[in-house]
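Lecture notes, continued. The same structure-token format from the folding unit now serves as the input rather than the output. Read the line below as a description of shape only.
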């Protein structure tokens, strides 16, 4: 198994289990413990995992509580979304990226790319991209800091957003339906998302299937404003029809199509 593919499998296992031993990883990937230890060292250097005695766990930078829990939910689907979405952007483009578990996975993918400019309110996304082997420039928006999910929010953030223009806003959301469109559970996160959309030419939403036909309290934007939707499974028939009518291009990650 190639190193990159093995690293991807290791991350999926660790994120699903939160904590796993070298022995279990070696058995799961049918490789030696020495190889696993070398892999874990490389992944720890990039901040994707934390090495512990005899194994690995999620990095402390993910924090505790809801955000860490989201990082371990539907890991395979979110990583597939991230890989599919990363192929949609070109060197030289500027991207707004908001805070979320799926957008953090996306940040890991574009950290391998070169020549992008990223503007984000997530300290973890900024950190992830800065550790990548590329010349991507990163701007971290300042504001009221929320340590639970490592993001800045509030009026200071939205004001700073207005000083930028971007080719794309790349956002994750709490819910998506045919009537309202994209929604969030937090009013502050919805405000950040709306400000990023206003300053962007194009909008790409990253969403896993659990968000389809769900309901959240705060509207982000209607379907007609979404240029591209990247997901891990096809949306339900009625929602697919409304997305098509709205002119939204839907990208389903490859494995889900098989």
């Amino acid at each position: 198994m190639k190193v990159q593919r093995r690293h991807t499998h290791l991350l999926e296992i660790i994120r699903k289990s939160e904590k796993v031993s070298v022995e279990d990883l070696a058995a799961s990937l049918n490789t030696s413990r020495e190889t696993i230890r070398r892999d874990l060292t490389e992944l720890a250097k990039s901040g994707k995992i934390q090495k512990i005695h005899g194994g690995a766990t999620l990095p402390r930078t993910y924090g505790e509580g809801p955000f860490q829990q989201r990082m371990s939910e539907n890991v395979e689907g979110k990583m597939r979304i991230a890989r599919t979405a990363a192929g949609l952007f070109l060197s030289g483009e500027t991207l707004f990226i908001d805070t979320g578990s799926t957008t953090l996975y996306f940040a890991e993918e574009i950290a391998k790319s070169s020549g992008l400019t990223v503007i984000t309110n997530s300290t973890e996304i900024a950190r992830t991209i800065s550790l990548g082997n590329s010349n991507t420039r990163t701007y971290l928006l300042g504001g009221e800091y929320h340590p639970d999910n490592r993001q800045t929010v509030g009026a200071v953030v939205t004001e700073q957003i207005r000083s930028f223009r971007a080719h794309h806003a790349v956002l994750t959301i709490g819910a998506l339906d045919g009537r309202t469109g994209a929604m969030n559970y937090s009013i502050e996160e919805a405000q950040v998302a709306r400000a990023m959309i206003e300053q962007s030419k194009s909008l790409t939403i990253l969403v896993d299937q659990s968000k389809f036909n769900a309901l959240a309290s705060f509207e982000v934007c209607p379907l007609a404003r979404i240029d591209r939707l990247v997901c891990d499974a096809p949306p339900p028939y009625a929602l697919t029809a409304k997305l098509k009518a709205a002119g939204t291009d839907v990208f389903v990650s490859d494995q889900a199509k098989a």
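Point for the exam: The radius of gyration is 18 Å.
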